[in-house]
């Protein structure tokens, strides 16, 4: 069977790369140049919805496609006035998607895995008392806040060059859907958080399990400041992709170790609280779906 992904688009039609069979939007064979007649074959067709740069495909019973609402993407700035969205890239992760969830819910790894890029360990070793969880609207949200520090901190200077001498920042992770996680930075200009934040930088992660041990992984950025500056976007995309490459190396090493087996019992530390809560949510959703199918 020739994979159709190797075919080519002819407007709304798709042409198979092998014998040139052409299929229409309904999946039906519309032309067969190498045959005397058009065969009665068709492709499987899946409901698909588009939100900004995201495509949501429903692989289950087509009649059930509307039974679950699409995840809210306004939380990442898609379609919201005053926000800019930049697609950063696609990555093939040779690791299970749950390792990515763990990774994004424990940003204390920034000071280690990403030490060469993000730097300042103080950003990521904040006391847990300053961390907060919210579970609302089907979302799981986690934040650590760092108050009153110098914006000479290279990372924040990079994110938002408008920062004054003092600033505050929140490091946030939000699971909007199992395949959509926002890892973001909210920053305040000044020594406290009594005024409105001056900006949000979201590093958004969208992923689809490919197999038990591999994941299709896309990232896109969104921010609500300096939105007309293409240079800021280009620099942030470049930095994001360098950070993602480091995560991929780490997660693939963990995946290899998991598959080798003979592992000691898992050790959880305080900073794993976010990851544990995210795992719990995934387990609850998987159990709910299994119960519904039963
Ligand atoms: Fe990371």
Automatic annotation (TrEMBL):
The keyword Iron-sulfur applies. It comes from the Bacteria. GO terms for molecular function: 2 iron, 2 sulfur cluster binding; metal ion binding; oxidoreductase activity. Residues 1-57 form the Rieske domain. Keywords: 2Fe-2S, Iron, Iron-sulfur, Metal-binding, Oxidoreductase. The keyword Ribonucleoprotein does not apply. InterPro entries: Cholesterol_7-desaturase, Rieske_2Fe-2S, Rieske_2Fe-2S_sf, VanA_C_cat. This is Rieske domain-containing protein. It comes from Sphingobium quisquiliarum P25.
């Amino acid at each position: 069977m020739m994979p159709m992904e190797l075919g080519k688009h002819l407007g709304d039609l798709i042409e198979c790369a092998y014998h040139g069979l052409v299929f229409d939007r309904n999946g039906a064979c519309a032309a067969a140049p190498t045959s005397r007649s058009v065969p009665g074959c068709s492709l499987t067709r899946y409901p698909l919805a588009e939100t900004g740069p995201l495509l949501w495909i429903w692989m289950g019973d087509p009649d059930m496609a509307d039974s679950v609402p699409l995840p809210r993407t306004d939380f990442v700035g898609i379609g919201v006035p005053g926000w800019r969205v930049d697609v950063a890239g696609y990555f093939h992760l040779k690791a299970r998607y749950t390792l990515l969830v763990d990774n994004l819910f424990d940003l204390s790894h920034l000071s280690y895995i990403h030490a060469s890029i993000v730097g300042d360990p103080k950003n990521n070793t904040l006391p847990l008392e300053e961390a907060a969880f919210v579970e609302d609207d089907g979302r799981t949200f986690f934040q650590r806040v760092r108050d009153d520090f110098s914006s000479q901190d290279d990372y924040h200077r990079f994110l938002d060059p408008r920062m004054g001498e003092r600033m505050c920042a929140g490091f946030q992770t939000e699971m909007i859907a199992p395949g959509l996680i926002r890892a973001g930075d909210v920053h305040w200009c000044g020594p406290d958080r009594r005024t409105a934040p001056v900006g949000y930088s979201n590093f958004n992660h969208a992923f689809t399990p490919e197999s038990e041990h591999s994941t299709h992984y896309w990232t896109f950025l969104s921010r609500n400041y300096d939105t007309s500056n293409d240079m800021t976007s280009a620099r942030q995309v470049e930095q994001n992709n360098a950070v993602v490459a480091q995560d991929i190396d780490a997660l693939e090493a963990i995946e290899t170790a998991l598959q080798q087996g003979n592992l000691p019992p898992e050790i959880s530390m305080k900073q794993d609280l976010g990851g544990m809560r995210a795992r719990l949510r995934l387990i609850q959703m998987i159990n709910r779906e299994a119960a519904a199918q039963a």
